[in-house]
Amino acid sequence: MRPFSQGIGMTSQRTRDRLVQRLRSKGINNNAVLEAIGSTPRHLFVDEALASRAYEDTALPIGQGQTISQPYIVARMTELLLEVKPDKVLEVGTGSGYQAAILSRLVDKVYSTERIESLATQARQRFRRLGYRNVRVQHSDGSWGWPQFGPFDAIIVTAGGADIPEPLLEQLAVGGRLVMPLGDRLRQILVSVTRTPTVYERVDLEPVVFVPLIGGGV
Ligand code: SAH
């Protein structure tokens, strides 16, 4: 590796370590999640012009009116999913691919859907280039889930809506967990749903702001 690019890599590692400390101070305490965030190059999931801000704990634009989520929210949602020890996870809203990349380090298989084709294609290229082999991306309306590969042990919806799409509840395995922001366009509340053999148990967590889920299965 050329000394110049090595220098950049080392700088990113230091700023990533600082981000991990910040997330710890905000209450994230799952070490596997912190480790995944500490070793995932978020600067490669945003436009080059924004790369210098990639390790701030903030959402950033990724084009097409969409955003890469704030690292704290990625960590929080991932932590909630891991509580049920999932092997197979469905993500609705691939966006930049960052959330899927974090998950791919923590579970066996990640299925991620994105309704904007250019984002799906770009994310796929990133996974290929960075060697994430257990993530599969589909350009589709994820509010219908991805029935071919369901049921899923965990489902993460990274876009907000008024209700949880019915197909996603159906494709959640018994014992599985779904997390999604529920609310209107301006603000939502992060909700965790666990499927037991008889019911869906819902817990309302913290306020969040996500771009809207747009789809027919809602
Ligand atoms: N998880 C992403 C954040 C993406 S923002 C990341 O880590 O970068 C939310 C994404 O959800 C947007 O890219 C948007 O296009 C997508 N989206 C919205 N409605 C969708 C739907 N019905 N199916 C699939 N993707 C959807």
Structure, explained:
The chain has 218 residues and is α/β, with parallel strands linked by helices. It has a domain of 145 residues: Rossmann fold, CATH 3.40.50. It is built from 6 helices and 9 strands. The strands form 2 sheets. It has a 7-stranded mixed sheet. The chain has a two-stranded antiparallel ribbon with strand order 1-2. The longest helix has 23 residues. The structure holds S-adenosyl-L-homocysteine.
Task: Provide the fold topology.
Blueprint: H1 3-25, H2 31-38, E1 60-63, E2 66-68, H3 71-82, E3 88-92, H4 98-104, E4 109-114, H5 117-130, E5 135-139, E6 152-157, H6 166-170, E7 172-183, E8 188-195, E9 200-208
Parallel strand pairs: 3-4, 3-6, 4-5, 6-7
Antiparallel strand pairs: 1-2, 7-8, 8-9
Helix pairs in contact: 1-2
The structure holds S-adenosyl-L-homocysteine (SAH).
